[in-house]
From TrEMBL:
Organism: Rhodocyclus gracilis
The EC number(s) this enzyme carries: 2.7.13.3
MF-aspect GO terms: kinase activity
Compartment(s) where it occurs, according to its Swiss-Prot or TrEMBL record: Membrane
Protein name as it appears in the record: histidine kinase
PANTHER family for this protein: SENSOR HISTIDINE KINASE YKOH (PTHR45436), SENSOR PROTEIN QSEC (PTHR45436:SF1)
InterPro entries from the UniProt entry: 2CSK_N (IPR013727), HAMP_dom (IPR003660), HATPase_C_sf (IPR036890), HATPase_dom (IPR003594), His_kinase_dom (IPR005467), HisK_dim/P_dom (IPR003661), HisK_dim/P_sf (IPR036097), Sig_transdc_His_kin-like_C (IPR004358)
Length: 454
């Protein structure tokens, strides 16, 4: 099994390149500072040597001469680490004294009488100080060159002197960052412990404690998820409880009808068996409604498809026409073209429940009209009937599961409008109940907002 990487280690590894870049930048800066300091210090020493040599130059009978006592040569040119060379020449390149291969500067300075430059002597890099002077009108150039051993040693001593404390500071910073990351991630460990102690049925909100803004946002989303899960599980528990309660009655009635039929003779079997058939039909309708309600629970999400509402009404009507003919109910339609976004299965379920509800509560020889109206405000599906209507005081209660008006008289099970509202909520639609001005009964409107139109 692949080991899950540590978040602390990942954060530390992501910080490491930045720290290494800082170390390199610090080393580069330290090297430049040390090199400039070494150049400044040892260039001044070279200049002192050129000044000392220039003080020993004189002109005799028009000839330039350099006279250096032996002790002066030992003082000026003997060094423990570096090799020092000098040269005196005229500005036109005539050799006066010293090492003839020491290269002169490319050009004299414009303002000062001295210049420093890098060169190569006998295959070794050297640093050269050039001094421009005149003796009795004769322009001269005094060169003193030195190898770079002392300069390089001083440069690296300064670099190490600056980098060692910096490296110590970097390691201390990394240690503090490691501890800081651990401290910052502690709320995640507390959250893990909270979840580990929970039972599967414990969906209480998690405690954010003193967590950071980012972790608090994660906890907030988890709490929203737990709340939705709790609502879904509560709805399922209520569904199971209500289903068990509602199924008990038709099953008991069916059992009584069967027992009565068993005690009857053949001549009197027709009435008990007809009652049995009616009970089975009611039970089948109830089971179908319960399954539809389960599909319409909040846990389900509507599919984002384009649904032709007029075609959906036609498909539902094909299954409803036999019921309307059997009850001698005039089922009419007035449909405009309309398309909405949603689940075809659930939308057809809502249409079927609206029409079925109207047919069940409309008396024989009555009328049920289904209309579909699309405008700038959205799409409205209206179902009107010539039944007893729904009192204004009960228009909110009829959307509750298993609620039925005492005086309604229909054979419904009280789930149709609850299913319609569930499906409407999943599609951003609304359901309202009013009086039908045309037929005198109830008018139920399912309205999809303009945002849901396809």
């Amino acid at each position: 099994m692949r080991q899950t990487p540590s978040l602390r280690r990942q954060l530390a590894l992501r910080l490491l390149p930045a720290v290494l870049l800082l170390i390199l930048a610090g080393a580069y800066t330290a090297y430049n500072v040390a090199r400039d300091s070494a150049l400044l210090a040892y260039d001044r020493a070279l200049l002192d040597t050129t000044l000392a040599i220039s003080g020993q130059i004189h002109v005799e009978r028009g000839e330039v001469r350099l006279t250096l006592p032996r002790g002066a040569e030992e003082i000026l040119f003997v060094d423990k680490y570096d090799k020092i060379s000098f040269r005196v020449l005229t500005t036109d390149g005539q050799q006066i004294a010293g090492t003839p291969h020491l290269p002169p500067p490319s050009a004299p300075p414009e303002e000062e009488n001295r210049v420093y430059y890098d060169a190569t002597l006998d295959g070794q890099p050297v640093r050269v100080a050039a001094l421009f002077i005149e003796r009795e009108g004769i322009p001269l150039t005094v060169l003193v060159a030195e190898t770079l051993v002392k300069r390089n040693n001083l440069t690296w001593e300064v670099v190490l002197g600056m980098l060692l404390p910096e490296l110590g500071l970097v390691f201390a910073t990394l240690a503090l960052v490691w501890l800081g990351i651990g401290s910052g991630l502690r709320p995640l460990d507390d959250l893990r412990k909270q979840l580990a102690r929970r039972s599967p049925s414990d969906l209480r909100p998690l405690d954010t404690g003193r967590s950071s803004e980012e972790i608090a946002a994660v906890v907030a989303e988890l709490n929203h998820l737990l709340l939705r899960l709790d609502q879904s599980l509560t709805a399922q528990r209520h569904f199971v409880s209500d289903a068990a309660h509602q199924l008990r009655t038709p099953i008991a009635a069916l059992q009584a009808q069967i027992e009565l039929a068993l005690r009857s003779d053949a001549a009197t079997l027709a009435a008990p068996l007809q009652g049995t058939v009616s009970a089975v039909q009611r039970l089948a309708h109830l089971v179908q409604q319960l399954l539809a309600l389960a599909r319409a629970e909040p846990a389900g999400q509507a599919n984002e498809e384009i649904v032709d509402l007029a075609a959906a009404v036609h498909r539902v009507a094909e299954t409803m026409l036999p019921t309307a003919f059997a009850a001698d109910i005039d089922l009419g339609f007035s449909l405009q073209a309309a398309r909405v976004k949603g689940s075809p299965l659930l939308i057809e379920e809502a249409i079927a429940n609206l029409i079925d509800n109207a047919l069940r509560y409309t008396p024989r020889h009555g009328t049920v009209n289904v209309s579909l109206i699309a405008d700038d405000n959205g799409t409205a599906l209206r179902v009107e009937d010539s039944g007893p209507g729904i009192p204004a005081s009960a228009r909110e209660q009829v959307f509750e599961r298993f609620f039925r008006l005492p005086e309604s008289g229909g054979d419904g099970c009280g789930l149709g409008l609850a299913i319609v509202r569930r499906i409407a909520g999943q599609h951003g639609a609304t359901v309202r109940i009013d009086d039908s001005a045309e037929l005198g009964g109830a008018l139920i409107e399912l309205r999809f907002p303009a945002a849901c139109q396809g």
